[in-house]
């Protein structure tokens, strides 16, 4: 019997690489090729798909803040004043992410009316003259 020769694999060319699996950051892309010869004509151990890592620009990271603190006490003991509350930045924005909104808020407050001592009006009237 003559010696048998194996028939070489007939393969299509590789396809173009697919798009990266992500729109930013690290992902994967693939390409394929097809077996053109009949499988029963011989063993074909060639790979039909390849994958590789791909890297796109970093993903935007938006600013992240803590919750608001409690409102402070009014800054005056009587009359009109203000109180504040704050929050801290946990993550600074990066790669075009959303900027941080305000971290301090101020609000008006009014504590009881300031009391004047007896005769204060008369003294002021005399000083004004």
Automatic annotation (TrEMBL):
Looking at the record's lineage, which domain of life comes first? Eukaryota
Domain Spondin-like TSP1 positions: 63-114
Return the Pfam families for the record.
TSP1_spondin, TSP_1
State the SUPFAM superfamilies in the record.
TSP-1 type 1 repeat
* Keyword Disulfide bond recorded: yes
Q: Mind listing the GO biological process terms from this record?
A: cell adhesion
Q: What is this protein called?
A: SPON1 protein
Q: Which organism is it from?
A: Sclerurus mexicanus (tawny-throated leaftosser)
Q: What lineage is on file?
A: Eukaryota, Metazoa, Chordata, Craniata, Vertebrata
């Amino acid at each position: 019997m003559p010696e048998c020769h194996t028939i070489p694999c007939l393969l299509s060319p590789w396809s173009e690489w697919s798009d990266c699996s992500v729109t930013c950051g690290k992902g994967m892309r693939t390409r394929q090729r097809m077996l053109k010869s009949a499988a029963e004509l011989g063993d074909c151990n060639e790979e039909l798909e390849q994958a590789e890592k791909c890297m796109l620009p970093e993903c935007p990271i938006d600013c992240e803040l803590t919750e608001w603190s409690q409102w402070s006490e009014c800054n005056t003991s009587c009359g009109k004043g203000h109180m504040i509350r704050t929050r801290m930045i946990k993550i600074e924005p990066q790669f075009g992410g959303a900027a941080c909104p305000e971290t301090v808020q101020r609000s008006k407050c009014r504590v009881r009316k300031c009391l004047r001592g007896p005769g204060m009006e008369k003294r002021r009237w005399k000083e004004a003259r």
